[in-house]
Write a structure and sequence with these properties.
By secondary structure, this protein is of the alpha+beta class. The chain contains four helices and four strands; from the N terminus they run H-E-H-E-H-E-H-E.
């Protein structure tokens, strides 16, 4: 999937987790569908999320920058990770 399409999907998602902590919790609860990781994020910050996502057999989309993930999530700062969630 092209990165632009993936970001549109994240932007238009009704439910999403923003940031590594929220994303990791969502994966742990089984609510994450697609996980987004910023390529420019510190690997130590995102490795737990990546490991959890791989363990849960989730699609992982790598995005060029934290700023792009933040913008797609409607926040004014960057985010190292985000996820599209299933409705509760």
């Amino acid at each position: 999937m092209m990165q632009a399409d993936a970001l549109v999907r994240l932007r238009s998602a009704e439910f999403r987790a923003v940031g590594t902590n929220q994303t990791a919790k969502a994966i742990g609860r089984g609510r994450a569908q697609v996980v987004y990781i910023a390529k420019d994020a510190d690997r130590r910050v995102v490795e737990g999320v990546v490991t959890a996502a791989k363990g849960a057999n989730l699609e992982i989309v790598e995005v060029d920058s934290m700023r792009e993930i933040g913008r797609a999530c409607g926040i004014s700062v960057g985010a190292a990770a985000a996820a599209i969630l299933t409705p509760e």
